[in-house]
Design goal:
Layout: H1 3-13, E1 18-22, E2 28-32, H2 37-46, E3 53-61, E4 70-78, E5 83-91, E6 97-99, H3 108-119, E7 122-124
Parallel strand pairs: 2-5, 6-7
Antiparallel strand pairs: 1-2, 3-4, 4-5
C-alpha cells in the first residue's frame, strides 16, 4: 500500500472533502473538511484499505491564521500493511466543534477528552466530554497560545526563545 494509492482512493471516494495533501517525512498527510472527517475515517476503516487502528487524536493552535486557528489531527494505522496516515481538520476559533469518533473507535473517548481539556475543542456526539487531566474548575485550556510562556518580570528569557 502506497501513499499515492491511498490518496487516490480517498479523493475518488470524497472528491469534495480533500483540501490538500502532503508527505512530510514520508507520511501521507491529508487535510479534510471538518464536516466530512467522520465519513472519511469510517471509509478508511471499513474499506479494503483496512486502516483500522486509531493511534492518536490531538489538537493544535495557530493563532496567526484566523480561518484555520484550531485544528484536530488524527493518526491512523493499518498494522497488517504497516501503513500510517495523518488526517487534519481546521476551524476558526468561533466554531471549535468536530464530530466524535467514539462510535468508530472506543479508544477515541479518552483522546477526545484530552483534546477538549487542553484545547477546548468540542466533539459532537461524545458520550462524556469533560476534563480528564486538568481540574474541572480550571476555567481555561492550557495548550492554547494565549498566555506568556515566561514570567513577564524576567529579563533573561522571552517568548521568542520558545518559538513564538
Amino acid at each position: 500500500m502506497t501513499n499515492e494509492f491511498v490518496l487516490e482512493a480517498i479523493t475518488r471516494e470524497f472528491p469534495e472533502s480533500v483540501i490538500s495533501s502532503s508527505e512530510p517525512y514520508g507520511m501521507l498527510t491529508v487535510e479534510i473538511k471538518k464536516e466530512d472527517i467522520k465519513k472519511v475515517v469510517h471509509y478508511l476503516r471499513d474499506s479494503s484499505l483496512e486502516i483500522n487502528f486509531l493511534t492518536d487524536i490531538c489538537g493544535i493552535h495557530y493563532p496567526e491564521f484566523p480561518e484555520k486557528e484550531i485544528g484536530v489531527i488524527y493518526h491512523l494505522h493499518n498494522m497488517m500493511a504497516n501503513f500510517r496516515i495523518r488526517l487534519k481538520v481546521f476551524m476558526p476559533r468561533e466554531n471549535v466543534e468536530v464530530d466524535s469518533l467514539t462510535e468508530l473507535y472506543a479508544g477515541a473517548n479518552w483522546m477526545e477528552r484530552e483534546t477538549f481539556d487542553f484545547y477546548g475543542i468540542k466533539f459532537k456526539g461524545h458520550p462524556d466530554l469533560r476534563a480528564i487531566l486538568n481540574m474541572e474548575d480550571l476555567g481555561y485550556h492550557p495548550m492554547l497560545k494565549e498566555y506568556r510562556l515566561e514570567d513577564g518580570t524576567r529579563t533573561d528569557k522571552d517568548d521568542s526563545m520558545f518559538g513564538r
